[in-house]
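Design review, sub-item: ligand-bound model
Attendees: FS, YL, KQ
YL presented the inputs for the NAP complex:
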Amino acid sequence: MDISQLMFRDGLMAGERILVTGGGTGLGKEMAEGFLKLGAEVHICGRRGGVCEETAEELMSAHGGKVVAHGCDIRVAEAINDMTDEIWAKHGALTGLVNNAAGNFISRTEDLSIRGFDAIANIVFRGTFYMTHNIGKRWIDEGKRGNVISILTTWIWNGGPFVVPSAMSKSAVNTMTQSLAVEWGRYGLRFNAIAPGPFPTEGMTKRLAPQAESTEDMNRDGTNPMGRIGKMHELVNLAVFLMGPGAEYVNGQTIAIDGAMYNATGGNFSRLGEWGDAEWQAARDAIEATNAKDKAKRTV
Ligand code: HXC
Ligand code: NAP
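KQ shared the predicted structure:
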């Protein structure tokens, strides 16, 4: 991210302690950097503990401050509890949570196995709930305020052909956001969400556009009304607006940041209806190679 494009004053987030799930890579890493630069203590987690450690070191060398890495699989409720026990005991209560961790890949729905569906739903649908439930209960028990942002997609509004387990799970998290904003608002807890359009990252591009030669290819059909992909600082500024102090009355909202792509084109993968068996096999082979490479780095 171009850190000079942050819209907010230095120190805005001093005193905040924020956990970003999946913060070792991609959009989670960018948001972690923004929060850190503005003075927050940041915790990041992922299954590849070493990747999170490297990110924590990189961000602290660039900006100082405190970033703590945790190896944690959010599909495992007990592992989440061990991590939050450790955070509360060694560092203190969190003030914010970003539900950013996700899994996804393009596939014809008829080609998905039950395990393939579960691979995505267990991270996005179940893991996001487990994380929110664990931390929300701690805040309620301790009478503390808390703030949750979940990272969704625009498919929650119009469906996600060829990414059905993700679209279903993200829609459920959107419903969680609306529901808990009302149910837990009385405890001083806030719930909002961001629905990004294309902000290409390695994890996303290799699974959703495995045929792309560069991240700019994500707009190769020129369908985005703004004629470009998203810039990381744009997403980070929105995340800070929702997570930082000053706009607390925003609650229960999901905000799209996609250059109006969803309004113009639906923003989903409907164009993949043109693909035949050969294209799908090539995509699957490429995605499974990426999955295997990433899996080899998992520490939990
Ligand atoms: C069909 C596939 C497949 C594919 C995997 N599977 N890839 N099926 N097509 N391309 C099937 C496998 O065959 C297996 O089923 C099952 O899924 C589980 O595979 P595993 O590799 O064992 O899964 P697991 O180790 O749990 O890994 C989870 C994962 C992986 C989701 C599959 O991709 C992952 O860890 N992803 C994390 C990072 C990520 O996805 N980032 C992208 C976020 S972008 P069988 O039956 O064969 O055993 C995003 C949206 C962006 O979310 C929106 C853009 C606009
Ligand atoms: P990414 O780099 O692949 O990020 C996903 C992160 O989630 C990884 O760091 C991964 O780490 C972590 N993760 C996955 N499963 C996990 C688990 N079980 N436990 C703990 N951590 C887990 O992809 P990204 O593009 O930055 O995506 C980040 C978020 O943005 C996702 O919610 C995605 O749906 C959303 N999004 C992205 C775009 C985009 O254009 N990039 C658009 C819309 C929405 P490990 O593998 O180490 O666990």
